[in-house]
Structure formats: structure tokens, C-alpha cells
UniProtKB/TrEMBL annotation, chain A:
It comes from Desulfacinum infernum DSM 9756. The chain crosses the membrane at residues 12-36, 70-91, 98-123, 160-178, 207-225, 260-281. GO terms for biological process: transmembrane transport. PROSITE patterns: ABC_TM1 (PS50928). This is Carbohydrate ABC transporter membrane protein 1, CUT1 family (TC 3.A.1.1.-).
Automatic annotation (TrEMBL), chain B:
The chain crosses the membrane at residues 7-25, 68-89, 101-120, 132-155, 176-201, 233-254. GO terms for biological process: transmembrane transport. It comes from Desulfacinum infernum DSM 9756. Belongs to the binding-protein-dependent transport system permease family. It is found in: Cell membrane. The keyword Transport applies. This is Carbohydrate ABC transporter membrane protein 2, CUT1 family (TC 3.A.1.1.-). Residues 64-254 form the ABC transmembrane type-1 domain. InterPro entries: BP-dep_ABC_trans_perm (IPR050901), MetI-like (IPR000515), MetI-like_sf (IPR035906). GO terms for cellular component: plasma membrane. It is a multi-pass membrane protein. Keywords: Cell membrane, Membrane, Transmembrane, Transmembrane helix, Transport.
UniProtKB/TrEMBL annotation, chain C:
Residues 4-241 form the ABC transporter domain. The lineage of its organism: Bacteria, Pseudomonadati, Thermodesulfobacteriota, Syntrophobacteria, Syntrophobacterales. Keywords: ATP-binding, Cell membrane, Membrane, Nucleotide-binding, Transport. SUPFAM superfamilies: MOP-like (SSF50331), P-loop containing nucleoside triphosphate hydrolases (SSF52540). It comes from Desulfacinum infernum DSM 9756. This is Carbohydrate ABC transporter ATP-binding protein, CUT1 family (TC 3.A.1.1.-). InterPro entries: AAA+_ATPase, ABC_transporter-like_ATP-bd, ABC_transpr_FbpC, ABC_transpr_MalK/UgpC-like, Mo/tungstate-bd_C_term_dom, NA-bd_OB-fold, OB_MalK-like, P-loop_NTPase. It holds the Pfam family OB_MalK. The keyword Cell membrane applies. GO terms for molecular function: ABC-type ferric iron transporter activity; ATP binding; ATP hydrolysis activity.
């Protein structure tokens, strides 16, 4: 199916182009501008070239935040993808249960991100939280405000709680798109349920799972509000991820130059993944049309 | 037997899913003193005092109104600009089409933290700080690309013969678009609106940075209260519960379209 | 291989069926003899696929029993029935090679690798897939994919029957003919029971020894292609099979004659006697090719007006007006074509009487 060729289509794109340019290009230019200057106040700025970049690249805390971020994002994928697929497999295929499951699954996705943090504070506080108090009452010391490991576990649990439903919804959509004939043929061929999963369901879900993996990787890479509310990046720096660190520099210390340089590097990392994401999507597309 | 085990496992998962939300609901129905003094699975003396405070104190309830305003504004702006653009991407080939599409998507992936300061600068220059439109525009950064992406998927599912027939029948483009095409992708528009609503509603960082008092969203009100009043847990929980309500209502209305939107593999 | 019997089978997709219209299948009683080539013919939505799925075990019927020889398999799942089924659209295991796809049903049953290899190669040979065996199944053309689906149906030697659910829909016409002949060959060589679902009468009549015609959840006739053509037991068979379909004229009984609009057509005594025991409404049925056309009046000839003549190559189709009825007549090419007024005769041998849609015989 060939599309019509017409450059007048640009007129249709124009509104989007203008609005996104206003929100993206101008601010991006500002960031670039900041990143090469030292700013003391209005009218007092000096060109410093690449210095902020040099400083940021050698920033030990940034390295730690990046390592932490990568570890976090990878763990997110390892936990959420299999769990989401399992949930999708267990979901009913018809009847009132479908709508009920969808609504329940979508619920965490519609809660403002800082409220997610609030929910998990109240849920895991050792003194008043249901989970925190129960664990402590069982004789296991647990306090996410004081112990790094506990903080990690809590942030992880929160993240899995918050976003696994998205993976489940995607996987479910992928499963529902498989025509009945495949399951019927598998029954006739005498396939075990493992074989059905391995040879029918998993291959057919490849497209949506690619999207799920990349989306979850991206969004967990940008995570800010939830851990910020829950742990404030602490104890110490142990749950300080890239966005939290960036906001700390920019707003907390008001170091505009380094923050801008950091922003650009951060954005480039994201762009790199974004490109991979796009390539992967394209490949999925052509793979299916064959 | 196996089906039963599945259902039990699924029910258990949903139980865990609901539990933290239930706990917040539980807290919201108790006074702060009660929360700190007693540990109880369900409120012994349920009170609506927290909710009453939110509904009577303008610094609280105006937060909800502000949020509603900018979320609605954003959804409208995103949809109206994205509709023609998505049509262009789904029907035409033109110079730079792929690049523009990719560039739009990169904005969906941009960390809001990166744009924090420049946004503040930019909107200060235009004297837009602390207005609803500022937040609505800022959220366009990630919602417009998203809307274009979802809508393009729905539109590509509609055969082009429909357009051709309409043009042969003498429809002008705007008339065709509004009276024929838009009704055809109603479901797609519903799903898109849902996602725009959702992402604008849940965002905190930009909304908090671009507002001071007049347009301060509820999410920001909540974080500031955390640090200011020495944590009134009951009030905080009640505010949290109220932020879930609009979302829950929205999902309930689009629940049947939701599966369809997801089925296209677009989020 | 086995004889398959359906006893009083009925199926409804509703959980609590109430009236007969809730049933997709109504009271089916049929026997499929071992080694027969059957076609199941009917319009879409008549219950063909439902019946097939009940035979294979993908569906458990609401009522009735399914027997393989004398074994009751009604509640058994397909994998325990030892049956093969090919679907309308190609079903492939995308991640596997063509060889693995064909081997899949065998491996699931734990056959040893040598047997698997031998069988797969035989089937690939028959379907011209040998060259593709090592390729990924996902990259092949629609034709090849459907051949693989067919192959998975044919690969097991010991199946009770192979069921085909409109398997050639997606194949292009030239290859369709070729594959149908292949299936026929396989049938003749191996004497397997084949049940072939289709809505295409040509496909059914050329493929099968016996054809079952289904209509609104019932088997209205089972017979050889000739029987279906010459003795349609149900009005539906009359106009579904043959081109153009059978002519039907509403009529009343008057002794041994069928009368309508003042005209009368003689019936044989036996038919007339039986018809008197039945309730109406009655209809007279005759195939267009058996209706005689004359250019002059005579015994039992009825006057008609010729409305239209269509040239179909080796024959012509006449549309004639007989009182208030329009009839189609099929004339061989060499016969002269009357115009304006003509006379038709209903030969007794080919004139059928239908009471309430069913043949009186």
C-alpha cells in the first residue's frame, strides 16, 4: 500500500510542529546555551566552553547514579516482563472478568506518580504501614528510611507494583490478537501447554513485548517522582537515580551550568536508547508484514 | 483444575495490587492521632473529617480544580493538533516525514528533568508562569507525540478507499475530515484522550515547577504539605484517594475501548 | 482409521439454549464410513465448521454422542482422538523451520527421529516442499504456508480421519486445482477417511465420493454428486447445487396432477399418493436442463413467453414466463432458440414434488 505523495501534508503537520518546537527546541537551545556558560546572576555570565562537560563526565556521584540507574532499569525488566506475561496468561478470555481485570490493572497507571510514592510510604512505614509493621512484627527488621537494602527493595516493589500492569495489558493485547485457529491446530497436533506457550504465544507476543521492554526501560530510566517522594534519594545517595540527581544539582544547588551539561549528556543517553527503540520497532514492523 | 489454580493466582495478584490502595483509603478515614496511636486493619471510628477539610479549604480543593483545568486543556490541545498530523503521517509521503515522526517520538522519551530549567526560563519570558496554559503546553511535550503515534495507528487501519470515495463525491477536505473521518476513528480518539489525560494527570515535576499558587496542581499541593505541616497522614491519604477518583472514572468509561487501543500495540 | 458416527448430535453456542434457533447444529445423525472421501457443503453459517469441530473434539456437543468405530469419544479432547484437521487460514509455528513444523505433530506423540524424518520427507515430497524443508516457515508465501498446514494434517499415518475446513480458500485458483488433485491422489493411495468442508459446489462435487449438504444446522441430504443433482431431497439442495438452480413453482394437488395458475402438470401415481398424506405447502421442482422447450403446442405442453436469452458458451439460459412464474431453462448449444411465444413440457421422470421444502418420494 503506497501512500500518496504530497508535500502539502506539511500544512497538516504544522500545528504539531509549532507546538512541539516551542516546547522542545527552544528549551533545548537554552540548555545548550547554559551548558557552556557560568552564570552568577542576570547579566553576569561567562563563556566557559566545555568545562562543565568535563566536570560532569568526571563526577563520581554521577557515575554512581548512572550505574545505579542501569542496575535499576535492568532489574525492573527482569521482574516486570515475566510477571506481566504470567498475569496476561492467567487473565480470562471472555465474560465480565475481562473488563474487571482491565480496570483493576489500569488503576495503578492512573495514580499521580507522587501519590504512588505517598501510598508506598504509608504502606511500608515501620510504625504505621501495613507491610512495614507486619514485617517488623514478624521479627524481621525493616526500615526503608534507614537501611539502603530495604530502601532498594521498597523502591523496587513500588515500581513493580506500579508498572507491571502496563506490561500485563500489553501482553494481554498480544495474546488476544492470536487467532483461535492457532490454539485449535495446537490441540490437534497434540502440543503441550508449554509447547503452545513456546511456539505460539511467545512468538506472537514478540511485537508487543519489544514495545513493553523498551517502554519500561525508557520510563524506568526517567523515573523521578515516586522514589523522590518515597525515599528522597536516600538513605544517603543509595536510591538517587539520574533524574533525582539532576534535579538536586539544578534546583537544589542551582548549579545551572553543570546541570545543563548533565541534561545534555542524559538526553543523549536517552536518545541513543530511543534510536535503538525505533530501530527495534521498525524491525518488528517489517518482520510481521513478510 | 488448572483453570482454578490460575484464577486463584490471579485473584491473589489483584489482592496485592489493591492492598496498598486500600491501606491509604483506610488511613484517609481516620484522624492523624488515631493513625499514629493505633494499628488497625480497618478504621474503628471512621471519620470524613479529612475529606471535609479538603473540600472546604481552598488551598486544597483549588488544587484539584487547577489540575482538572490544565489536564483538560492539554487533552484538547493534544487532540486538535495531533489529529491532522496523524492523518498526514498515515496517508501521505512527504519530505522529511520519517525524520519528523522520529523526532516527535524522541520527545516522548525526553526526561522531563532535562527540560525543567529551560521551561521555567521560557515561560517566565512569556509571563506564563503560574498559569494553567503553561502546564498544559509543557505537557504537550510528551502528549502530542504520543497522541500522533496512537492516532496514526488507528487511522492506518482505515482503508484509503474511504477517503478517495469521499473526495470523488465532492467532499472538501475539512468537511470530509470532520464529518466522515473523525466519526470513523471515534474509538481511537477515545483511547488517545485517555492516554493524554492519564499522562498529564500523573505528571508532577513540570506541573510543580511551572506553578506557584494560582495554578498549583493537587500533586504539588501534596508534596509541599508533606514538608510543611509535619505530616498529617490522614489528610495526605485523603488527598491521595481523591486523586485516584478521576482516573478510576475515566477508565470505567473507556474500559471497552482500552483493550482495542492496546491491541494496536500503541501506548 | 475408523468409521465415525454422530448420534443425535446437537450443539448450541449459548449456555442455556431455549428454542431451536439457538442451535447451530440440530439433531445430526450421520455415519462416515471408513476410507470415504466426503465433502460437507453448505453456505456460510450453516454449521459446517461446528460439525467438523465436534468430530475433531475441539467442541463438545451440547447433546448426542460421537463414536469412532464403537468407541465413545464424545468427551475426549482432540489429542486423544487421533485425528488431523487443517484450517481455513494457514497456521504455522513461526519460529520453526518447515521441517520442524511438519514434524511437530509426530514429535508431540513421541515418535522416534527416524520415523519422523521418513514421514516428513514423504509428505514434503507429495506437497513439493522438499526444497523448502530447511527454511523458516515464517518467510514463505501464503500458498506454501497453507501447504505446510496441509502437510501437518497428512503427516500422521494412523489418524482416524483428516478434516479439512475450507483449506484452499487462500490458495490461488491454478494451485487450488493442483492441490485438490493431490488430495484426491493421497486419498486413493492411502484410503484415509477425508472430510472436506467447503461452500463451493464445484470443489465438493469434484473432490468427494459422497457429499453432505447442510442448511441451517441440519444435514438436508447425503449422497453422491449424481444423486444430489438428480434427486434433491430438499429445496435447498435444488437451488444450491447446479447452475442455475432448480425451478420451483408453488402448486396445489388435484388428483394426480399439480395445478397452478390454471395450468396442470401430471405427476406419477406413486408421488401423488404419497403427497396426499403430507401437509403443504406444495411446490413443483424441475432442473432447468430437464425442462423441454417446443415451438408449437402439444400434449402436456404449457405456453410460456420467452423473456431473456443468455449465451453461456456451450449452452444457453432461457428465462421464460409461465403464468405468474419465471422459470430458467438450460438449452444445449445446438438446439434452436425460440423467441416470443414457446411451449414447455415437464417430463415426468424429472418433475419433483416438494412438500414443505422436502421431496415427496
Amino acid at each position: 500500500m503506497d501512500k500518496w505523495e504530497s508535500n502539502r501534508a506539511w500544512f497538516l503537520i504544522l500545528p504539531v510542529f509549532v507546538i512541539v518546537a516551542f516546547s522542545a527546541i527552544i528549551p533545548l537551545m537554552t540548555v545548550v546555551n547554559y551548558s557552556v556558560q557560568d552564570i552568577f546572576g542576570p547579566g553576569q555570565r561567562f563563556f566557559v566552553g566545555m568545562e562543565w562537560f568535563r566536570e560532569v563526565i568526571h563526577d563520581e556521584r554521577l557515575h554512581n547514579a548512572l550505574v545505579r540507574q542501569l542496575a535499576f532499569s535492568c532489574m525492573v525488566l527482569l521482574l516486570e516482563i515475566p510477571l506481566g506475561v504470567l498475569i496476561a496468561l492467567a487473565m480470562p478470555k471472555k465474560g465480565w472478568g475481562v473488563a474487571a481485570c482491565l480496570v483493576l490493572l489500569a488503576l495503578p497507571l492512573l495514580i499521580p506518580w507522587n501519590v504512588i510514592g505517598t501510598i508506598w510510604i504509608t504502606f511500608t512505614r515501620p510504625d504505621i504501614g501495613l507491610l512495614g509493621k507486619t514485617i517488623n512484627d514478624m521479627g524481621i527488621a525493616f526500615d526503608h528510611t534507614a537501611r539502603p537494602l530495604d530502601a532498594w527493595i521498597t523502591v523496587m516493589a513500588m515500581e513493580v507494583w506500579h508498572w507491571t500492569p502496563l506490561v500485563a495489558l500489553l501482553a494481554y493485547a498480544g495474546l488476544r490478537a492470536i487467532p483461535d485457529a492457532y490454539y485449535q491446530a495446537a490441540k490437534i497436533d497434540g502440543a503441550s501447554s508449554w509447547a503452545v506457550f513456546r511456539h505460539i504465544q511467545l512468538p506472537k507476543m514478540r511485537g508487543v513485548l519489544t514495545i513493553a521492554v523498551l517502554l519500561r526501560f525508557m520510563d524506568s530510566f526517567l523515573i523521578y517522582a515516586e522514589p523522590f517522594v518515597l525515599t528522597g534519594g536516600g538513605p544517603g545517595d543509595t536510591t538517587t537515580f539520574l533524574s533525582i540527581y539532576l534535579v538536586k544539582i539544578a534546583v537544589g544547588q542551582f548549579d545551572l551550568g553543570p546541570a545543563a551539561a548533565f541534561s545534555l549528556i542524559y538526553f543523549l543517553i536517552v536518545l541513543l536508547f530511543c534510536w535503538l527503540f525505533y530501530q527495534a520497532l521498525q524491525n518488528v514492523g517489517t518482520g510481521e508484514s513478510k | 483444575m488448572r483453570v482454578q489454580k490460575r484464577t486463584i493466582a490471579l485473584s491473589f495478584y489483584f489482592f496485592l495490587l489493591i492492598l496498598p490502595i486500600y491501606w491509604m483509603l483506610n488511613m484517609s478515614l481516620r484522624t492523624n492521632a488515631d493513625i499514629l496511636a493505633n494499628f488497625t486493619l480497618f478504621p474503628r471510628n471512621p471519620t470524613l473529617a479529612n475529606y471535609l477539610k479538603i473540600f472546604t479549604d481552598p488551598s486544597w480543593y483549588s488544587g484539584y480544580i487547577n489540575s482538572m483545568i490544565y489536564v483538560s486543556l492539554n487533552t484538547i490541545i493534544s487532540l486538535t493538533t495531533a489529529l491532522p498530523a496523524a492523518y498526514a503521517f498515515s496517508r501521505f509521503r512527504f519530505i522529511g516525514d520519517k525524520h519528523v515522526f522520529f523526532w516527535l517520538l524522541t520527545n516522548r522519551m525526553a526526561p522531563p528533568a532535562v527540560f525543567l530549567l529551560p521551561f521555567f526560563q521560557l515561560y517566565s519570558t512569556f509571563h506564563l508562569i503560574d498559569t494553567h496554559i503553561a502546564v498544559a503546553l509543557a505537557h504537550c511535550l510528551f502528549n502530542v507525540p504520543l497522541a500522533v503515534w496512537i492516532l496514526e495507528g488507528f487511522m492506518s487501519g482505515i482503508p484509503r478507499e474511504i477517503d478517495e470515495t469521499a473526495f470523488i463525491d465532492g467532499y472538501s477536505f475539512p468537511r470530509f475530515f470532520l464529518t466522515v473521518f473523525v466519526p470513523l476513528i471515534r474509538a481511537g480518539i477515545g483511547v488517545t484522550a485517555f492516554f493524554c489525560f492519564m499522562f498529564s494527570w500523573v505528571e508532577l515535576l513540570l506541573a510543580r515547577t511551572l506553578t506557584i499558587t494560582n495554578a498549583k496542581p493537587i500533586v504539588a499541593t501534596m508534596t509541599r504539605t508533606v514538608s510543611a505541616t509535619g505530616l498529617d497522614w490522614g489528610l495526605l491519604a485523603a488527598a491521595g484517594v481523591l486523586t485516584i477518583v478521576p482516573g478510576a472514572l475515566v477508565i470505567w468509561f473507556v474500559r471497552n475501548h482500552l483493550a482495542k487501543g492496546f491491541a494496536l500495540g500503541r501506548v | 482409521m475408523a468409521r465415525i458416527t454422530l448420534q443425535e448430535v446437537a450443539h448450541s453456542y449459548r449456555r442455556h439454549p431455549k428454542d431451536p434457533s439457538d442451535y447451530a447444529l440440530k439433531n445430526i445423525d450421520t455415519v462416515w464410513e471408513d476410507g470415504g472421501a466426503y465433502a460437507l457443503l453448505g453456505p456460510s453459517g450453516c454449521g459446517k465448521t461446528t460439525m467438523l469441530n465436534i468430530i475433531s473434539g475441539l467442541l463438545t456437543p451440547t447433546r448426542g454422542r460421537v463414536l469412532y468405530d464403537d468407541r465413545d469419544v464424545t468427551r475426549l479432547p482432540p489429542e486423544q482422538r487421533n485425528i488431523a484437521q487443517v484450517f481455513q487460514f494457514p497456521v504455522l509455528y513461526d519460529t520453526m523451520s518447515v521441517f520442524d513444523n511438519l514434524a511437530f505433530p509426530l514429535r508431540n506423540r513421541g515418535l522416534d527421529p527416524q520415523t519422523v524424518r521418513r514421514r516428513v520427507q514423504e509428505v514434503a515430497e507429495v506437497l513439493d516442499l522438499t526444497a523448502d524443508l530447511k527454511k523458516k516457515a515464517a518467510g514463505l508465501s501464503a500458498d506454501a504456508k497453507q501447504k505446510i498446514s496441509l502437510g501437518r494434517g497428512l503427516v500422521r499415518e494412523d489418524v482416524a480421519a483428516i478434516l479439512f475446513d475450507e483449506p484452499l480458500t487462500v490458495i490461488d485458483p491454478h494451485l487450488k486445482w493442483h492441490l485438490r488433485r493431490k488430495l484426491k491422489e493421497i486419498h486413493e493411495r492411502l484410503r484415509l477417511t477425508l472430510i472436506y468442508v467447503t461452500h463451493d459446489q464445484v470443489e465438493a462435487l469434484t473432490f468427494a465420493d459422497k457429499v453432505l449438504v447442510m442448511y441451517e444446522g441440519e444435514v438436508v441430504q447425503m449422497g453422491t454428486p449424481t444423486e444430489l443433482f438428480e434427486e434433491p431431497r430438499h429445496k435447498f439442495v435444488g437451488y444450491f447445487i447446479g447452475s442455475p438452480g432448480m425451478n420451483f413453482i408453488p402448486c396445489k394437488l388435484d388428483g394426480a396432477r399439480a395445478v397452478f395458475d390454471g395450468a396442470a402438470v401430471p405427476l406419477d401415481e406413486e408421488t401423488a399418493r404419497r403427497a396426499r398424506e403430507k401437509e403443504g405447502p406444495f411446490e413443483l421442482g424441475i432442473r432447468p436442463m430437464y425442462l423441454e422447450v417446443h415451438d408449437s403446442p402439444g400434449d402436456d405442453r404449457l405456453p410460456v413467453k420467452v423473456l431473456k436469452v443468455e449465451d453461456q458458451g456451450i449452452f444457453r439460459i432461457l428465462t421464460v414466463q409461465l403464468a405468474s412464474n419465471t422459470l430458467k431453462v438450460r438449452l444445449p448449444e445446438e438446439k434452436p432458440v425460440p423467441s416470443g411465444n414457446a411451449w414447455v413440457r415437464f417430463p415426468r421422470r424429472w418433475t419433483k414434488l416438494y412438500a414443505n421444502g422436502r421431496l415427496v418420494a
